[in-house]
Structures are given as structure tokens and as C-alpha cells.
Amino acid sequence: MIDKTHTDGLLHEIGSPPPAMALTAVSVAIPTLNGGAQLLELLEAVFSQRIDGPLEVLIADSESTDGSIQRALGRFPEIRLFAVQRQHFDHGLVRSALVARARSPKVALFSQDALPLGTDYLASMAAVLEQPDIAGVYARQLPRGDADPLIRAQLECWTPPPEDNAAAGPIIKGLVEGQTLDQLGPLERMKLARFDNVASMVQTELIEELPFPAREFGEDIAWGAQILERGLRIAYLPSACVEHHHPPNLWGIFARHRIAHRQARTEFGLHAVPGLRHLALALLGGIPEDLRAGPIWALRGLPRRCAALLGQWAGGRQPATGKTAQERHR
Predict the structure, then answer these.
(1) DSSP label of 324
(2) Whether CATH 3.40.50.1220 fits 4-243
């Protein structure tokens, strides 16, 4: 169940709560911090969706200062806005609190810089959740138009296209009867539990029973593992796509990999880069992959791989600690 001691008072609704009404067809929940023009792009796409029934959008904003929230409310005054103090932001708690306030049995979650493609995105994701033992479904991520070849290759590995291009259905992931996650190797456990709240949809009732855990990062994969251990399933729908990628900032690459691999070590037992010798071997081993994009990109890829591997090495050595401002928002 959602721990009210952690979520009560976390979000403060701005303005009067909406009058009691029937359930909406789909709710959309978006945590924000200085979302800029990409937030407005996301909202335009969300409000353009074709669904059977009413739609509500909930935003939890962490003290934005760029005017994006004012512009969003000016364009879409029906948005339900919640304020959260920036120093209290937590990826798991804020998302769980938004889901708890939604008026739909299905809640779509987006990062503020994701852009759903097509007007049937929400409907196709919701259709997957018609199967009651599927707790959540996540979408494929495609790079935005300005992404370079290295980013495109990384995203294709993270959320790959369907093996059969003609296949449009979901890929269902779950444990076989009698199996537990602990019986699998660390990498297998992480692959099976992979869930991504950059663009996902969850069953509201299940989140109320088994909320996203409190996490500075990686609340989605931690929740995926808990769902599988409950005997439920999660789904990946590669035909539902969003545009989303992180610009190749070396510090950002290091920071994301450090915290992700701290979680991988402490929660899944994966120690990907245990020493500097392993780091050097992995750095050299990645060059042929980058060469597929051409020699120039292989050279440009070296600093990024080095930053990522240093982050993995540092994260594997570091015990779980409190949040930093850099890590609270992705």
C-alpha cells in the first residue's frame, strides 16, 4: 500500500480540486522541473490523443522558474497542477502520489521531455492493460531528429524494435511458475525486471497496493522486480513510441551511470565494472561497435564510453547514500 507518511503533504494541489465526477478513461502524470518548450510539445501531443472517454492530466512541478508551467496552464487550463518542494522530490514517491490522485484505472507516466508519436499512443498502451495480470506497460524510445548515430545505437539496444517488423503486439515478461528472481543471474534479473517510466502506463489499483519505491533514480526497474515477484507481469510495447534522448553531456553520462550501477550492485547484485582493468578492457571492446557509425564517431564515442564506464565503476564501489540535486531529475 502507498505509505501515507511519505506521500501525505508531498504534493500540494494548486487551485481548487475538480468537482467529483465519473472516472476518466486515462489519466496522464508528469513530474516537471523547468520543462521548457519540450513540455508544451508533450502536452500538445497528449491532448491530441484519440481515446474513448475523458482525459485528465496531472503535473507535479518542482518549483520551475522558466515559465513553462504558466505557459502550459495558459494553453491547457484543465491541467491539475501539484507543487512539490524541489528538495523533497523523489522519483518513486512523487509518481506514486500522482497516481493516487488520478481518477482513472489506468495512468500514463511521462518524462517531461518525452514526446508520444501518433494520436493512438494512449489507446494502444491502455489496450495492453486490459489483461488484469499485466501491471504496467512501457513504450519504445526513439531519438529526436538531432540525435547522433551513437545515441541512436544506444537507444536501439535499450528499447529495441520488434524482432518481426510485422509484429505489433506487446512483449510480455514474467516469471514461470515456481520461479523466483533470485534463481536468475544479475543481468537476467535486470533484463526481466526492466520497466521505464520515461513512457509507461500502469494499473492504478496495483500502484495503490504496490507503489513505486522511494528512489532517487531507477524506481521503475525496482518496481518491475517487485511486480514479477508478486507473480504479475509487465509488458513492452515496441509499436507505441516516444521521442526521447539525453544530449551527450559527459558529466550527465557519468552521473546517470554511477547512480544506475549503484542500484544494479545493491539491488540486483550486478558488478559490471569491478576494477579499472575491467574498465580499460570494456573501453577497448566498445570501439568496434562505435566504428559501425564511422571512424569519426568511434573517436567521439571514446570520451562518452569512458564517462559511462567510470560511472559504472564508481557506482559499483559506492554504498547507497542520499540524493544530490543533479540526480533528482532526469
Answers:
(1) -
(2) no
